[in-house]
Design a protein that fits this description.
The complex is a heterodimer of chains A (218) and B (237). With 218 residues, chain A is mainly alpha-helical. Chain A is built from 8 helices and 2 strands. A two-stranded antiparallel ribbon of chain A has the order 1-2. In chain A, a hairpin with a 2-residue loop joins strand 1 (164-165) and strand 2 (168-169). Chain B is extended. Chain B has helices spanning 2-12, 17-61, 146-150, 181-198, 217-226; strands spanning 67-74, 79-86, 92-104, 107-116, 121-130, 155-156, 162-164, 173-175. Classes of the chains: A mainly alpha (218), B alpha+beta (237). The A-B interface holds A 1, 4, 41, 68-75, 78-79, 82-83, 85-86, 89-90, 93-94, 96-98, 100, 104, 161-162, 177, 179, 182-183 and B 1, 3-4, 6-7, 10-11, 15, 19-20, 23-24, 27-28, 31, 34-35, 38-39, 41-43, 45-46, 49-50, 53, 129, 133-136.
């Protein structure tokens, strides 16, 4: 297993960076679509959801990878769920106490972080098989990638749907907001367009690499 | 190396049921302990937030109000807590009454409104919680559309409040928001329902201001300055 090689800082860096772009949980893996569509009607909500998810994902990964030798594999999923649910409930209380207005906007979706497949997925696929440091690097990268995606969607929907960003008006009072963008259908439309854009980027990169590769061999 | 051996041996040997139960039991216990400590810390803050939010809403729907106190009403079936609002000199201004309805376009609407018994009129209204459509139904909120909420600032309630569509010309009429008749109706219904069930149980004379809430600094200063005449004049309306 790769985790018993001597520690190499660049390796940790690679684990961290891959989640932000190359294996972005939303744009590439298409995970965690429920909060992605439900809470991104403004940039602030997207950011708050991203922060809550980051807290849960990083803490759970750290704990799961530290305890990975103690947890019998027959009850591992149950134990992961207990760990995740504990951190989610903590995040819920803390948000309620610190930023009640945002908590009200996000509503039940904070509790629903428990069932975000991105989090359980990282525990099962990565944290339970790697050292705590690597697991935290991976979790932080994935969480930042997820937050970045939420922020992208939230910002574009808020700009089009309310004519503002983080509550600051952009286009002045004469802008007629494109209300559909902050309603649920707008979430699907915008997510579709963003996925289209990222797929196009990826394919373009592949094509360029192929052309470049051909250039070298001939 | 030892870590590898440990992993392999713990995965290969079938763990006893006791081991499984113990793992889950310990996990649950630690989780419970962690959660109750976080709860202990955050609960007072959450309560204070809710209280402050309520107080702000009460002071907003009764114009000129500076303080409030709870009044409990009782009828045949239930009890309801409403809030009496007072100005800076502890003179009674009116009540703030919470109402809610499930008849909104998208589920529940919770609101609070001010009522002045001396003139029998609604004097203010604030939506506390709603899921109405942005751009249409959410115009019932003051911050989205001040014109609708402003109609509740001097509104006769007898015989009932009525929603009209082509301009109000009576004191007890509310002009519906264009394209959001259902939301407009829901707000008015919530107020009518509360009026019907509770206004007859209001105390005959408004309650006098009791001892001040000494939790925040401003009040404490005011109380020490005024001495004992704080609770004497309340029914002067």
């Amino acid at each position: 297993m790769s985790n018993h090689k001597p520690a190499d800082p660049s390796q940790y860096y690679a684990e961290f960076v891959k989640g932000i772009w190359k294996e972005n949980p939303v744009f590439v893996q298409v995970l965690g679509m429920c909060p992605m569509l439900a809470v991104t009607n403004s940039a602030m909500n997207g950011l708050a959801m991203g922060c809550a998810t980051t807290f849960v994902l990083v803490c759970s990964s750290l704990l799961v990878s530290s305890l990975r030798t103690f947890i019998p594999k027959q009850v591992r999923i149950t134990t992961y769920i207990i760990i995740i649910a504990t951190f989610v409930t903590m995040a819920d209380y803390i948000l309620k106490a610190a930023v009640p207005d945002i908590h009200k906007e996000l509503g039940a979706f904070i509790q629903l972080i428990v069932v975000n497949c991105l989090i359980l997925g990282r525990q099962e696929a990565f944290a339970s098989r790697n050292t705590p440091v690597r697991a935290v690097c991976d979790a932080a990268g994935m969480a930042i990638g997820f937050t970045f995606a939420l922020l992208c969607l939230g910002a574009t929907r808020e700009i089009l749907g309310s004519g503002s960003i983080f509550g600051f008006s952009l286009f002045g009072p004469n802008y007629e907001p494109w209300v559909i963008m902050i309603l649920p259908p707008g979430g699907f439309l915008m997510l579709g367009m963003i996925l289209l854009f990222f797929n196009w980027l990826q394919q373009r990169k592949l094509r360029r690499r192929r052309i470049a590769g051909r250039g070298v061999t001939t | 190396m030892t870590e590898v051996e440990l992993t392999i041996s713990s995965q290969r040997a079938e763990p006893s049921p006791f081991r499984l139960i113990a793992t889950l039991g310990v996990a649950g216990m630690i989780s419970g302990l962690a959660l109750s400590s976080v709860y202990q810390i955050t609960d007072p803050i959450i309560r204070a937030n809710n209280q402050r939010e309520l107080e702000e809403a009460v002071l907003e729907v009764v114009p000129g109000a500076a303080g409030m106190q709870e009044v409990v009403l009782t009828n045949a079936e239930a009890t309801k807590t409403i809030y009496a609002a007072y100005d800076g000199d502890d003179l009674f201004l009116g009540y703030a009454i919470e109402g809610s309805t499930n008849e909104g376009f998208a589920g529940q609407i919770r609101l609070i409104y001010g009522y002045d018994p001396s003139i029998k009129r609604v004097v203010g209204m604030k939506v506390l919680e709603s899921l109405e459509t942005p751009g249409l139904g959410d115009k019932i909120k003051k911050e989205k559309n001040p014109a609708f909420a402003a109609q509740f600032e001097n509104l006769a309630i007898e015989p009932t409040i009525v929603v009209v569509k082509d301009g109000k010309d009576q004191d007890n009429e509310i002009d519906a928001i264009t394209g959001a008749t259902i939301s407009s109706n829901a707000v008015v219904d919530a107020i009518n329902t509360e009026n019907k069930s509770w206004l007859q149980y209001l105390p005959a004379t408004p309650p006098a201001r009791e001892e001040r809430d000494l939790t925040n600094e401003e009040d404490r200063e005011a109380a020490s300055g005024e001495g004992d005449d704080a609770a004497t004049d309340g029914g002067g309306e």
